Amino acid sequence: MIEVDVGLKLGTFDLEVAFSNGGGVIALFGQSGSGKSLTLSLIAGLMRPDRGRIALDGEVLVDVERGVFVPMHRRRIGLVFQDSNLFPHLSVKQNLLFGRWFAPRREREIDFDKVIETLGIGSLFARRPAGLSGGERQRVAIGRALLSCPKLLLFDEPLAALDMQRKLEILPLIEQVRDEFRVPIVYVSHAIEEVVRLATTIVVIDAGRVKAVGSPGEVFGQVAAHVAEERFDRASVLTMRVVGANAAYGLTELKHPSGTVWLAGPAGPIGGVARVIVKATDVTLATKPPHDLSIRSVLSGTIEGIEKEGPLAMVAIALDGDGRLFATATRHALDELRLDCGVRVFALIKTSALDERQISSPRS
Ligand SMILES: Nc1ncnc2c1ncn2[C@@H]1O[C@H](COP(=O)(O)OP(=O)(O)OP(=O)(O)O)[C@@H](O)[C@H]1O
Q: 215 burial class (0-12, 13-18, 19+ CB within 10 angstroms)?
């Protein structure tokens, strides 16, 4: 259990954040410069807050009022950054063992071989970090952090420097770390696909303040207040069943009570359940079922809310059966189609807008 309630003033920037998490992944999500990395630095012990308290599993790491500050190396916290920060003069194996060295012998519960196998890094032992690809470096960095048998793992934009293919390789590994090694994680990112896929709880940070806390569905299910600014961050999380596949075209068919969504790529076994993340900007609205269009993914529902700002609008749709879907539209389109609360609509989703990253298996 991580408990954070701290304040820090740096120049003109004022950070005041409070949140706690019992386990799983807590994601700090927000725009660049909102204070996510500063919050991680305070948890890691890289910086001291001006006020407040941080506790991990009941142990107080920082209590400004009582003069408590546990130094970084005694916090038992593993760090993974965007650039892996491996020691360039050490081999991969030495880097991994360095992480191990920090764990007190009797607390080395995490099995070395299991970590190496999970991350697929056994063949890299003799190599130096400079000779590794970006994805390999991040896998070794995750291994090093995990092998220190931390009480908490901190990830700061670990995928930001990687291309899409590498991201798709590493995301499932982070999920495995979450599920198999059961180390609580605080994960910083401004990529909505990553936080929705990984997080149990999302803390939205905006200009140094906590703006929202909740599950992915709760946090991204709120109606946008600032349409223009938030439209690229707005997404819906829908629970669907995997019902079939079109192997010839590499497509997976997902069913929701309101319709069908096709995914370009795999989504787990047929019969399984998947969470699908649909960005509001990838949804088009129609008042009739579409004909003669290339769109194959269509969900039906009723408009339950509209927020307008400038030329744009954010439309919230109560899908038939269950769930809420957001769609962006221009105000011009709303007027032409006479879209208003209570109107039945068909939401068209571009299949190519959804990839494996937008799909995850819900955790128990
Ligand atoms: N040492 C410092 N002195 C003064 N201001 C700082 C210092 N470190 C960070 N800041 C400011 O604090 C704010 C929050 O920075 P932070 O790195 O936490 O943002 P972030 O949300 O992690 O952004 P990004 O996603 O770009 O990394 C920024 O405005 C930054 O300029």
A: middle
